[in-house]
């Protein structure tokens, strides 16, 4: 199983880097994990709707360039489907069973994901109705992927 997480923006916070490195290391016995960061588009705090679309489109082009044509894409989005950890694990297991060996998770930047990325996605996943910093979401996602593999293998981590 090859899992890729594509995120917008460079991870700067040391504590987040350490957490992500820890779970990535733990995941090695279950799957090959690749973390890809694409540049975020520099933009002022206040943008018009049209300017926001331009920023999201530029970020989307960078994201889509990193996704293989045969990858199964899961976009993280507030309006996506919420799952329990067990349901998330079952989804991963189902993808493996049906030959989807390349899963790509996409986390957008501060403005979210452009429609072109959401259209490329095979599904949208939400961890909450709340908004989280996209860099923190990367850590949460890596931890949940690790937790999912522990659940799949019947290991006790999720208890």
Automatic annotation (TrEMBL):
Specifically methylates the pseudouridine at position 1915 (m3Psi1915) in 23S rRNA. SUPFAM superfamilies: alpha/beta knot (SSF75217). GO terms for cellular component: cytoplasm. Homodimer. S-adenosyl-L-methionine binds at residues 76, 108, 127-132. InterPro entries: Alpha/beta_knot_MTases, RlmH-like, tRNA_m1G_MTases_N. Its EC number is 2.1.1.177. This is Ribosomal RNA large subunit methyltransferase H. It comes from the Bacteria. Keywords: Cytoplasm, Methyltransferase, rRNA processing, S-adenosyl-L-methionine, Transferase.
């Amino acid at each position: 199983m090859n899992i890729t997480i594509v995120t917008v923006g460079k991870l700067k916070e040391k504590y987040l880097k350490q957490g992500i490195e820890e779970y990535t290391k733990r995941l090695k016995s279950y799957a090959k994990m690749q973390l890809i960061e694409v540049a975020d588009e520099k933009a002022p705090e206040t943008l018009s709707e049209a300017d926001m679309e331009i920023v999201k489109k530029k970020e989307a082009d960078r994201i889509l360039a990193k996704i293989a044509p045969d990858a199964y894409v899961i976009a993280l989005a507030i309006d996506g489907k919420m799952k329990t950890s067990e349901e998330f694990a079952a989804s991963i297991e189902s993808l493996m069973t049906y030959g989807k060996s390349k899963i790509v998770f996409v986390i957008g930047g501060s403005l979210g994901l452009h429609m072109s990325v959401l259209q490329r996605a095979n599904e949208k996943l939400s961890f909450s109705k709340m908004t989280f910093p996209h860099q923190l979401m990367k850590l949460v996602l890596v931890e949940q992927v690790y937790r999912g593999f522990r659940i799949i293998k019947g290991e006790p981590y999720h208890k």
